[in-house]
């Protein structure tokens, strides 16, 4: 068995962007998740869609999608990618209390999309913090992790016990925050 080496470091120890020119293009997919914990008061405001800055969950989702597309601008050794698909879902989790974010990125290419999924997740969490900080500056962002990656030479990897089924369109949108949907109908 050969020892693994860091792909972003050359023989002299200098940082480098990996040359993927000779790699075969394959379907690639990555799924990441994270969470932000907040006070009960902040959670209730987010759940009722009563945060002064607007719809926290939808803004977080848009911020995550935008971040996935800009990953190479943020992470120095990432390749700029032509993503085929990015989805970000921000949902309420009363058990935290707070918001869970799940991000998925896909493409057909020569390099993986793990960093795009992780970046989407992290920036979506930052957007939640920005939207809610006037109510709770003590929020804790964390648990950002890769759940799944597939494609490429290294094949498929899935975190033990992770549910990585693809998200189903917008069918789950109403289930994420029924209280906010009801508020909107009354207006």
Give a short summary of the structure:
The protein is an alpha+beta fold and 187 residues long.
Which key features would you list for this structure?
single chain, 187 residues, alpha+beta, Alpha-Beta Plaits, five-stranded antiparallel β-sheet, 31% helix, 25% strand, elongated
Q: What do you see in this structure?
A:
This protein has a five-stranded antiparallel beta sheet. It has helices at residues 40-47, 56-69, 71-74, 114-132, 173-176, 178-186; strands spanning 26-37, 85-93, 98-109, 140-150, 157-158. Helices cover 31% and strands 25% of the residues. α2 (56-69) packs antiparallel against α4. The longest helix has 19 residues, at 114-132. It has one domain: Alpha-Beta Plaits (2-Layer Sandwich), CATH 3.30.70. The chain contains six helices and five strands, in the order βαααββαββαα. It is elongated. It has 187 residues and is of the alpha+beta class.
List the helices and strands and how they pair.
Elements: E1 26-37, H1 40-47, H2 56-69, H3 71-74, E2 85-93, E3 98-109, H4 114-132, E4 140-150, E5 157-158, H5 173-176, H6 178-186
Antiparallel strand pairs: 1-3, 1-4, 2-3, 4-5
Fraction in beta strands: 15-25%
CATH architecture assignment = 2-Layer Sandwich
What is the number of strand segments? 5
Computed structural class: alpha+beta
Order of helices and strands: EHHHEEHEEHH
Taking the alpha carbons of the first and last residues, their distance comes to 65 Å
CATH class: Alpha Beta
Low-confidence stretches: 170-187
């Amino acid at each position: 068995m050969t020892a693994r080496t860091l792909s972003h470091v050359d023989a002299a120890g200098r940082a480098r962007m990996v040359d993927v020119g000779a790699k075969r293009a394959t379907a690639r997919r990555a799924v990441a998740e994270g969470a932000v914990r907040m006070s009960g008061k902040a959670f209730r405001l987010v759940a009722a869609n009563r945060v002064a800055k607007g719809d926290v969950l939808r803004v977080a989702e848009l911020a995550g999608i935008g971040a996935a597309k800009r990953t190479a601008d943020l992470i120095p050794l990432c390749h700029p990618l032509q993503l085929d698909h990015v989805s970000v879902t921000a949902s309420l989790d009363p058990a935290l209390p707070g918001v869970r974010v799940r991000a998925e990125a896909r493409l057909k290419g020569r390099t993986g999309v793990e960093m795009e999924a992780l970046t989407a997740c992290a920036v979506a969490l930052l957007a939640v913090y920005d939207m809610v900080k006037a109510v709770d500056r003590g929020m804790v962002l964390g648990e950002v992790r890769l759940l799944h990656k597939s494609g490429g030479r290294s094949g498929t990897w899935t975190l033990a016990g992770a549910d990585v089924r693809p998200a189903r369109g917008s069918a789950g949108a109403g289930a994420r925050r029924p209280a906010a949907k009801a508020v909107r109908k009354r207006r």
